Amino acid sequence: MKILVMNAGSSSQKSCLYELPGGSLPEHPPEPLWEGQITWVEGVDHASVKVKTHQGHVLKQDLPPQSRFDDTLKLLKTLWTGDTQVIRSPEEIALVGHRVVHGGSHYRQSVVVTAAVKAEIERLAEFAPVHNPVNLEGIQITETLLGNQTPQVAVFDTAFHATLPPAAYIYPGRYEWLEQGIRRYGFHGISHQYCAQRAAQILQRDLANLRLINCHLGNGASLSAIRNGVSVDTTMGFTPLEGLMMGSRSGSIDPGIIIRLLRQEGYTVDQLDHLLNNDCGLEGLSGVSNDLRDIDAAIATGNQQAEQALEVYIHRLRWHIGAMLPSLGGLDALIFTAGIGENAPQIRAAACAPFEFLGLKLDPEKNANRPVDQDIATPDSAVRVLVIHTQEDWAIAQEAWRIYTTR
């Protein structure tokens, strides 16, 4: 059984093809048969395509100016044409799984795509205007390519957080807000769910008996407090802007700042949107970059502004980790994942340091040795510390298979 995964972002389309021998899920994530990515850069008149297969074939090329829809069709056709061919025809694809960022309060789990589901994804673009339209476009593209007979499954990034209790998802504003759908939804749910399941495997524990804090630290970043396998708190809210300081997003700030900028600085709504999402966070404070590697390089040259930006980043990360603890009533494991979480030992060490009072003891040598899917706490640590390579695409494939086989 072959499952195609479509993971669309605002400026990219990542896709991969998995094969499940015997039609059942293996215990560990398999290597994709084929991986493809297409990237669009603002101001550049072509798209960059990269494809690789499990046999080692690689394709890199730039496509001439055309629509995103047509670019993606060309990407997917490399599955059965040229040196990157891994299937004989598109009919071999049995199932397609799509990452959809926003499922609102209606979709509490993944669903088979129908006309009604597509209409709701389109309606929810009001809440995720950058992502839901391109997620829907991915569904339309695969329908064009594979026809309506191939089942498709929408895997919602918000669904994992549908278990948040009302006290955690209701904002302290007007009750009418809640009636209008203004509430905390949470994001990165596919990654948080995968890492929780993988943590249970690594620890050889029952997920239903674990208390976890998962730190998804990339350019976008969020935490999830996971108790007995379900999300009970998270840092992102109505939008991915809430919570941690991120690469270029501000994270949570005093809303009075927004009022001041509107009144005294004359900002428009669109200018504020761009400012808070694209010109704040590490990039805005450092004046250097949204990339931690660039921040570290600037600090090495004595750049005090970059150093201060990193200090704020670490302070707010610690602050939010601490805020997750009361929802759990204890902590069995602290997990680090995504680009920064997996590759920045100094961030992991700084994040762990204040929690030694919990009996958490980090092993410096293990932390420094590029761990992947490993426990980096000392043997006598009361809290395990895990570094997990998040595999969102495989998690989407798993969800698609589960929904398809249990419908």
Throw out a few tags for this protein:
6-stranded mixed β-sheet, Nucleotidyltransferase, domain 5, 8-stranded mixed β-sheet, 2 domains, alpha/beta, 14 strands, 20% strand, 407 residues, 15 helices
Could you tell me the radius of gyration in angstroms?
Answer: 21 Å
Briefly note the CATH topology name of the largest domain: Nucleotidyltransferase, domain 5
CATH architecture of the largest domain, by name, is 2-Layer Sandwich
Major beta sheet summary: 8 strands, mixed
How many distinct helices? 15
Structural class: alpha/beta
Number of domains: 2
Please report which band the strand proportion falls in: under 5%, 5-15%, 15-25%, 25-35%, 35-45% or over 45%. 15-25%
**Quaternary organisation of the protein chains:** single chain
| Helical coverage, percent range | 25-40%
Report the principal-axis shape: globular
CATH superfamily of the largest domain: ATPase, nucleotide binding domain
User: Averaged pLDDT, please?
Assistant: 93
Q: Would you list the SSEs in sequence order as H and E?
A: EEEEEHEEHHEHHHEEEHHHHHEHHHEEH
| Spatial order of the strands forming the largest sheet | 5-4-3-2-1-6-8-7
> Got a strand count?
14
